[in-house]
Every structure is written in structure tokens, then in C-alpha cells.
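Entry for the shared binder. Reason: the reviewer on the internal report wants the predicted structure included alongside the sequence.
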Amino acid sequence: MTRRAMLGVGCLGVAGLVGGGYLWQHRPIRWRRGFTVHLLPPDAPTGEPRFLRGLQWVIQAHLATLAPACVASVPHPDIPLPAKRSAFQLQLRPSRQGDLLCLGFRWRRAGGAWTEVSGKPDAPAQAVSAFLAALPEHVEQDREARLLPRSPELAWELFDLAPIRVPLSETFGLRARLDRLVAQAPECATAWCILGRATYHELLLRRDWTPEERALAEVCMNRALGLVPGMPVAAGELAQMLSDFGENGAALAVLSRAIRIHPHSEMLLNRLAYSARNAGLLDVAHRALLERETWMGHLGGIENTLLYLGEIGRFEEGILMQVQNEGWNSARRFYMGYAALVRGDRDEALRRLREAKGEWSDTRFGDTGFTLWTFLEGRTQESLEALEKLVQQNLTIRTPDGEFILKLAELMALHGKENRAIDLAVRAASHGFGCVQWYERSPLLAPIRVFLRFQALLHTLRERQASQADHFPPSAFGF
């Protein structure tokens, strides 16, 4: 081989290595090594400035979108990291200096010491970029400013508006600020996501919303997904909204596209478990839960999929772990009593419900807990009145939750009101809850399963569930 030929071969080899390295560095997120981040509540030296909650939400959205990561907010550092995964705890330590952001943070692996990273004051977009580059795992950069506007003024406005926790209609000027944000930052997917999310949550609070408002929420989140395909927070919120409206097929289609880009996303796996179990696809829902548990390192609270599969012990274990981390609330107390009742242990169900000491919050699970507690105590008339009030409240909601409506059907059957229970079961199905297995297996629905109208409902649900299973096998989600 001549010297010139050898030189040519050498150049080709170098070019191949360079090209291969470039392709390796720019391979899709789903092909990169996954890792877990437990995002702790931020620690700010000056207390809790107004922007802190929004900054935490935006940073979580960045990590979930730009990294092959399972990113989850956890309340304290004692929650264990997954043993078999690359994982670390992360705590922001930010401060604001005029229009500049100083984004310090600290991180540590399981059992390791904290590593402190000092930030330097910079424009928000540059500060976030430096933060991402300093993390212990590789995270892509938001080079096209799709997640945070480069303008400091707009970035601070985005921090202030994300996430919205107050009703738009009850807060003067809030809707105008959101509209102005997307008008001034039309290429920012996070801005569109915040507007869509806020509009969607407004629908859940109001009874007089219009079809145009529902369309706006959907358009905004789809706009975000058009700018950043698969963006977990946008896809997750859109899927949740569609399932809340009973459109599980549309929700699963959104999740199928997103989860192939972000297969480790805690939000997408969580939303997939919800939409799949509503559609009756318990195999898909269970695989999503197992995948989420693998990446998180623990169960995730109230997981109805486990209940429907008959894994009641695991269902209770998940709730108790959440109680250990976050304490009791009405939903956890209700479900612990409900689980014991499903097992046929009325005494244990009553014992668990009595632990609330009659202090039930003014929420739907507070009301259902009160209803079940008074029924098991023998205060039947008081319980039935509370149940009827809860049913009437639910009938006026224009975005009812089919899964919750079936709980009302179960309670109505428990009170011996078979026709009312069947009416509610039909309503649950019409609002998207199609898990045939639970209609067939719930011991609380046993009194109404002999009725022809309920049998006809089961026939319709079996056909609908079979169609969903054909369209969305586990492989549709990479399982």
C-alpha cells in the first residue's frame, strides 16, 4: 500500500471515529443510559421567595425533558434511592439578585456525602444552562430556548406563573398574564404548557365552562408538544385531561408517542397506569407501575391497578409507604378502610376508619370516608344522606371521574340501593371507566351483578375493552 493510500485510510478512520463520536453524543434520549433524580424541596438562604416554587417546577420540567431520567419530587431526603439504578438526590439552593438568578445546588449518591455546587449570578437562561452542565449525569441543553425564554423578564414571569395553584377566574389579571406570556414567548413550550394546564384545572373547578375553554386547554398542550415532541409534563397533563373526559383511547395515543421518547419518565409512567387501568388494560397499567417502581425504588401511593388485580397487600403497602413519607389524609384513610372491606374484613375496615376520629376533610374522599365510616358503625340513615349528597354534587360536575363514580355505585350497592347503584355504574362507564375486571370482581358490586341491565353493561364494556387492547398492546409503549 502506498504512503498516500495509507494516509487516506488513516483519514477515513479518523473521520469515522469523529463521526461516530458525534452520533454517540447526539443519540436520542431514549438510547442514553437512564438514571433517577429525587428532587427535594429547595433550600433558599433567604427563606422562600415568591419565585421558588415556580423555579422548582420549571427545573423538574427541564430535567424530565432533556435527560433520560426518572425525575420525581420527594418530600425529604430519607426516601431511599433505587439500589440497582444510577441515582442521586438533588436540592436547589437558589437566590435572586435583581434580574439575575444564582442557581446553586447540592447533590449526593445513596450513602454518600453532599457535594455543594455554588452558582454565580447570571441571566436565568444562562444560570439554568450552567446548572444543567454541572449535574453529575449528562443532561442535554435547551439550545433553542424551547423550555425557558432567553429574555430575563419573560423567564422571571414564567417562574412566577408556574405552576398555577389558584383559580384563573378568581384571580384578577392572571389569565391576561398567561395570554401575554405565550404571545411574547410563542416558541416556549413551557409557557404553552402552563397556560394549557391552568385552563384544564380551571375546568375541573367550574361547572359553567364552555367547549371553547376545553379546546383551548387541548390546543395549548398540543402546541407545547409540537415545539418539544414528547415533553413529559405536556403529554402527561394532556393524557390526564383526556382520561378525565372519558377519552382513554386518545390519552393512550398521546402517551404511546411520548413514552417512546422518554421511557423513564415518572410522570408518563404514572399517567399511563391511570389511563390504561381506566381503559381496562391492566397488563399495560401493571407494567407501567413496575417500571416506575424500578426507577423510583419504591411504590407510589394509592395504586388502584394493584387493587383491581387482586394484589391488596401490595396496594396497602404502597399507601402505608406514602403515609410514612407524607402523613395521613382523607384519601389514604378511606382507601385503607376500603381495602379491608374488599378483603371482607368489616371489623378491620371500621377500625381503620375510626382512626380518623371523625375528622374528615371537605373533599370527595373525605365525604366517601365519612359515608363508609358511618355505614359500618350502623348509622345507616346518616350514611345514606351523606352518600346522596355526594352523588348529587357529582351529577352537577361536567368533568366527572368515572373511576370515582364507580366507588359511589359500590357504596350505593352496600346500602342495598340496587337500581341506584346500577344507574351509577352505567354513568361510570359512560364517563370512561371501562375496567371490566373490576366491574366483574368487586365484592361490593356483587348484589347488582345478577341484574340484566348490569349484564348488558358488562357486554358493552367487554367489547370496548377488547377494541382498546387491540389498538394498545404493551408493545405500543415499549414494554
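Summary line for the report: The two ends are 51 Å apart (CA to CA).
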